[in-house]
Amino acid sequence: MGKDFLSKQEKEALASYQQKINQYVQGLDQEYQGHFQEIHARYLELGDLQTYSFDFGVNVRLRLVASIELAEKAGVPEERILHTDSEIDDFFLS
User: Could you name the domain of life of the organism this protein comes from (predicted)?
Assistant: First the structure.
């Protein structure tokens, strides 16, 4: 999204940084590459959930489901997660 507004110099700098990261990751041994891939996959998954959680173009019910899943994946204790409209109202109005 934001990358559409970057200058040529900024895009080149980002591409250079990405290339350095890729070279570094390739230099990691197999065990660490596996850990890196797990962390990266989780990062992407949480990013997608966060996008859906706050996208006002998405149905309210789907945003609620994405918010619940995001909270669960982020390690929020189940009893602290808001699951229903009434729980949300109670939380914000009390």
Answer: Bacteria
Tokens matching residue 46: 């949480």
DSSP state of 29: -
Q: How many angstroms separate the Cα of 15 from the Cα of each of 8, 39, 65, 70?
A: 10, 21, 35, 29
Check if the beta carbon of residue 60 is closer than 8 Å to that of residue 68.
no
Q: Which residue has the tokens 């109670």?
A: 90
Under a CB-based contact definition with an 8 Å cutoff, are residues 52 and 73 in contact?
no
Taking CA 68 as the corner, what is the angle to CA 66 and CA 73, rounded to the nearest 5 degrees? 90
- Grouping H, G, I as helix, E, B as strand and the rest as coil, residue 68 is helix
Q: What is the dihedral of CA 53, 54, 60, 65, to 10 degrees?
A: 10
Q: Give the pTM.
A: 0.44
